[in-house]
Design goal:
6 helices; globular; about 375 residues
């Protein structure tokens, strides 16, 4: 049976219903590193599960990315960083320059695309509990002893850490997102609702880029969006600080996703409205319902601060506060949760002590295993 933590649920409800001191949502210190470290990127060439990787990151500009080093034609490139050369972030031994989406913007391979490895940024505790024994780049080896309970009937996961919180659609998804083209000239005159240090998630399809401020995602967690003919869902979990984009096209048509009100290991569990199946965001599979066991097709997205996006893009399309719900987007309902490293709203199956719980790390997922990189690795 799914556990119910009534007092915790009421506390979360109060966060959404009660007023509090006005404050802009901001990003936490990216990994505990020095926020004044020099501008520019750092390159890590690594291998995980036999896959040659290039990791590109900047502690000062608050991003970490992972791409495959081997191209479709079999060429394995060697990369090096570029300093203050936006939109180019890094270059290779052939003279190509690559941007934040892994697209060649100059050089003999201009227009080609690196394959972004399955990866995303989130709190360390989330990767530690979802992928017990996660490998840590240039860090302490795993020394724990964890035995996960088996799944219960009708589920693909153990339900002892599936928690009921706010109920179906207790947090409303954005089904009709409105975007606007940002203009720095207009922002100077009128100000802008996104703070420079706010984390903003970006996705690129068919040459079009959509940006999603976490000040909005905090209140909705799901945006059912479309670029061209591609229907997708941008999902965000404030409790684990993870952003993942999913395909919404199913065998019998396009669906939309909503918030089920369930959490697994403190991570959001969306449901699709066509089949009422329940999905795990970080596992990216259906854990209960008619589609049980199916994996969700995903799209790569990039997470960094608004100030960095403005350096990279001239006129980005940004999700506006015109959601139809009138939430207080200048208030971060999770501010105290984010700033208290020791506090978890809900219990998790395994608590890996090697890294502070709420340090933001990049988790690379290959063959069902994870490897984590820290912002301090890119100082």
């Amino acid at each position: 049976m799914v556990s119910r933590f009534i007092l915790l649920s009421l506390s979360l409800l109060l966060l959404f219903s009660c007023g509090k001191e006005q404050t802009r949502p901001t990003s936490p210190n990216p990994g505990g590193g020095n926020p004044t470290s020099r501008a520019g990127t750092k390159i890590i060439q690594d291998e995980f599960e036999g896959l040659p990787l290039v990791l590109v990151g900047s502690n000062s500009d608050n991003f970490m990315l992972a791409f495959e080093r081997q191209l479709a034609d079999g060429t394995v490139l060697d990369f090096e960083p570029m300093i203050q050369a936006y939109p180019s972030l890094f270059k290779d031994n052939e003279g190509n320059q690559w941007d934040i989406f892994g697209r060649a913007v100059a050089g003999p391979r201009k227009g080609q695309q690196l394959v972004q490895v399955h990866s995303y940024i989130g709190f360390w505790f989330a990767f530690g509990t979802m992928y017990p024994g996660v490998e840590l780049y240039d860090g302490a080896a795993y020394s724990g002893d964890f035995q996960q309970n088996g799944p219960e009937s009708g589920w693909t996961i153990p339900t002892n850490h599936v928690i009921s919180s706010l109920g179906i659609d207790g947090i409303p998804a954005v089904d009709e997102p409105v975007f606007e083209a940002f203009s720095s000239r207009d922002a100077i005159n009128n100000g802008y609702f996104v703070a420079d240090d706010e984390i903003v998630v970006g996705i690129q399809m068919d040459g079009e880029i959509h940006l999603y401020p976490t000040s909005i995602l905090n209140w909705h967690e799901i945006v059912n969006d479309q670029i061209g003919n591609t229907h997708f869902c941008m999902s965000f979990c404030p409790l684990t600080a993870t952003s993942i984009a999913w395909d919404r096209d199913m065998d019998d048509g396009v669906t939309t996703f909503g918030i089920s009100g369930l959490l697994y290991n403190s991570n959001v569990m969306p449901y699709d409205r066509k089949t009422n199946s329940f999905w795990s965001q970080m596992r990216e599979d259906c854990v209960r319902g008619p589609l049980i066991g199916q994996q969700m097709a995903r799209y790569p997205c990039v997470e960094t601060t608004w100030s960095t996006w403005k350096k990279i893009l001239s006129s980005p399309l940004v999700l506006t506060q015109d959601t139809g719900f009138g939430k207080k987007y200048d208030i971060n309902p999770y501010e105290s949760y984010i700033n208290d490293n020791s506090y978890l709203s809900y219990p998790v199956e395994y608590d890996d002590p090697r890294v502070p719980r709420k340090e933001r790390v990049l988790g690379v997922i290959v063959n069902g295993k994870a490897k984590a990189y820290r912002f301090k690795d890119f100082e």
